[in-house]
């Protein structure tokens, strides 16, 4: 069961990142597809499944935030990613602010993935 959930989780990670990249591209190019209902709803579905599978995996392996440093780092990284993503796709007042937040969100995403791979709270920063 663990490997099934882990593969599902990794699939959600890839889908979430691909969706964020696509929505960022559409935002910067002014593509009207960004306003479609599916574009607004599907990321929330994928991210919810991603979070649920993460909770399931953490429970299965007995690694929890504030008990395992690398899991804690991923949670704080997730919060930063969400905040930066919100600025990048919705709340940024200028294109420069949005672009900076978008780049920051992608860097945080890469850092979170590197933590997951290395099980080290510094990830690629180590």
From TrEMBL:
InterPro entries: SirB (IPR007360). The chain crosses the membrane at residues 6-29, 41-61, 67-89, 96-117. Keywords: Membrane, Transmembrane, Transmembrane helix. One of its GO terms (cellular component) is plasma membrane. This is Protein SirB. It comes from Thauera aromatica K172.
């Amino acid at each position: 069961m663990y490997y099934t959930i882990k593969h599902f989780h990794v699939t959600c990670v890839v889908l979430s990142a691909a969706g964020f990249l696509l929505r960022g591209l559409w935002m910067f190019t002014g593509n009207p597809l960004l306003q479609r209902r599916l574009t607004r709803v599907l990321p929330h579905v994928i991210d919810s499944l991603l979070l649920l599978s993460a909770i399931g995996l953490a429970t299965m392996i007995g690694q929890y935030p504030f008990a395992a440093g690398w899991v804690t780092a991923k949670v704080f990284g997730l919060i930063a990613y969400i905040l930066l993503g919100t600025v990048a796709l919705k709340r940024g007042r200028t294109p420069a602010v949005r672009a900076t937040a978008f780049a920051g969100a992608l860097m945080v995403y890469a850092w979170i993935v590197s933590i997951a791979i290395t099980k080290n709270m510094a990830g690629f920063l180590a």
